[in-house]
Amino acid sequence: MNGTKKKILKITMAAAVSLLLAAASVYGLWRSGAFLPRKIRWENASFADKTGDYQVELSHRRITVTWQGNAGSIIWTSPAGVKVQKALSADIDNDGHDELVLLCWKIGRYGRDRPFWVEKDENKWSQHLFVYEYMQGEIRPKWMSSYLGKDLADIALYSRADSQNRLLFTDFNGETTCWRWDSWGFTLEDAAVSFLAFGDNLIHEPIYRYGLKNDGDFSFLFENFTELIHKSDVAVINQETPLVDRPELYSDYPRFGTPLQAGEAIADAGFDVVTCATNHALDQGREGVRTTKDFFTSQGITCLGIQTEEEQEYHPYEILTKKGIRFALLNYTYGTNGIRIPEDAPHMVHLLKDEEKIKKDIADARTEADFCIVFVHWGTENSNETDEDQKKWTKVFLENHVDVVIGTHPHALQPAELLQAADGHEMLIFYSLGNFISAQSAPVSIKGGMAGFTVSPSADGYKITEYSLTPLAITWHKGGRYTVDQLFTPYPDPESFSSNSASGTGLE
Asked: Where on the phi/psi map is residue 300: left (φ > 0), alpha (ψ -120 to 50), or beta?
C-alpha cells in the first residue's frame, strides 16, 4: 500500500471515529434529557405528606423521599431515566391519605409491561403522570399513565367546597381541565359552572291580564328560553315587581302588584335565583315583600335583596354551591321610589347607600365563598349610557374584588366589559340588561339582554372562561300576548369586550 492510500485510510478512520464519538455524545445528551422541549418549566421543591412522616425533595429533575420512621434516611428515589417536571403530595383519591403525584418525562410511552397490541415502544421522550402511595415506610406504585393526551405545563390540586379533591391539568395553551380519581385512574369532569341572567321581569297590566284570561298560565313569558335555562347551571332573573296573592292587589304602575301565577311561571321555567331588590320592592308594603320572599323560598329558588319583617338579622348575601364552587350572591337597589323602609324592619330591602357597609358585606361574603357576584339595581332610566353613580360603584366593586356585577333598572341595554384592577383582579360587568319583558313602548325599552358567563377552576383560583351578551326583543301580538325572542347576534360581539384597568375606563 503506497503512502497516499495509507494517508487516506488514516483520515477516513479518524473521521469515522469522530462521527461515532459525536453520535455517542448526542445519544448521551438525548438520554440525559438535553433535548426535551424547552417550554417545560422544571420545578425544585421540598414538601411533606399530611402526616409529616415523609419528606419529599425535588431537585434537578429527581425525587428523593426520606422517612422519619427510619431516622430520616432516604427510602426512595425516582426511577432512573425519569425526569420529574413537578411533584405534589395530595389526597387525590379522597381516602384520607396523601399520594405522591409526579408529572414527569421518560423515553417511550410504556415500561416493561406494555400492552400486547403494542409491537414496539416509541423511542422518544413523552410526558407521564405517576402516582405512588406512602405505605409503612415504603413508596409503592399506585397508577402510571402511558399517555396524557396532550403535554401539560402544570398540574395542581383542586380542593372543592364539598371536600372532594381533584387535579387540574393545564396545557401549554393555558387550557385547564379538571380530573377526578376513579377506581382505575383519572376521569375528566365537568367542573365549569354556567350562568344565564335576564333583566327586568316588569309585569305591566296588559301582560298580567293576558295571563289571567288564559287560566292563569304565564308560561308564555319564558317559552322561548326554557331549553337554555335548563341547560345552564344557574339561571337568574330580576323580578322587578312584587308578587301578590289577592286579586284586589293586582296593579300597574306606579305601584305594581303582580299575580302569584307569574312567580309560578318563573319556578316552572327552571330559574334558580331571583333578584328582588328593586325600586318597586315596597310597592305592596310588607305584604308584598312577605308574599314574594315566601313564595320563591317555598319553590327552592334563592331570593335575593329582600327580607321579611320576621327576618330581623341582616343577611346581605346567600351562598349557592354548584359543582363544588361556592358563589356569594348579593343584591342591592339604589332606592324604593320614596317609600320608606319600616323602622322595625330595617333590612327589608337591601339598599345601595352605605359604602362602608357594602364593603363589609363583600368582605364577609368572600370569607365564605370562592366567587362573588353582585346584582345591582342602578343607573339612569331609558339610557344606554352608564352614569356617574354607576361608575362610582363600579370602582368600589372592582377594588373590593367582586368577580361579576350584573346591573338592572334602566329599562335599556347597556355595555358590558371586563375590567382589571391595579392589583390584577379581574371583574366582568354587565351595566344593564334592560327589560326582559314589559309593556313599555319606547324603542330603547323593547330590547333587553341575556348575559351568559362560565366560571371554571384554575390553578390560581377561579376564572371566567366564557362570557357573552345576547340582545333580546319584546314583541306584542294581536290579542294582547307578549313574547321575548333572541336576536342571535351577540352584543357587543365577544371579541369587542374590553379588558382595561379602572383608570382606563373613566372610573376615577
From this structure: left
Cell reading at 395: 370602582
* Helix axes of 285-298 and 260-269: crossing angle, nearest 10 degrees: 30
Q: In which band, very low, low, confident or very high, does the pLDDT at 125 lie, cut at 50, 70 and 90?
A: confident
- Cα distances (Å, whole numbers) of residue 508 to 157, 308, 404: 38, 37, 19
Neighbours of 4 (CB within 10 A): 8
The per-residue pLDDT for range 434-473, each reduced to its tens digit, is: 999 999 999 999 999 999 999 999 988 899 999 999 999 9
Place of cell 385512574: 185
Residue 80 sits at the vertex; the CA angle it makes with 79 and 86, to the nearest 5 degrees, is 60
Query: What one-character DSSP code corresponds to residue 388?
Result: H
Q: Specify whether the CB–CB gap between 158 and 176 falls below 8 A.
A: no
The sheet with strand 499-501 has its strands ordered as 317-322, 325-333, 371-377, 404-408, 426-430, 416-420, 499-501
**DSSP assignment of 316-334:** -EEEEEETTEEEEEEEEES
Distances (CA, A) of 266 to 188, 201, 287: 33, 10, 20
Q: If we measure between CA atoms, which residue out of 483, 464, 462 comes closest to residue 472?
A: 483
Say if residue 367's pLDDT is above 70: yes
| Entry pTM | 0.87
The answer to whether residue 489 scores a pLDDT higher than 70 is: no
Distance of alpha carbon 206 from alpha carbon 42, whole angstroms: 67
Angle, alpha carbons 134-138-144 (nearest 5°): 60
DSSP string, 292-313: HHHHHHHTT-EEESB--TT--S
Structure-block grid coordinates of residue 152? 401539560
The size of the chain, in residues, is 508
**C-alpha radius of gyration, the chain, whole number:** 31
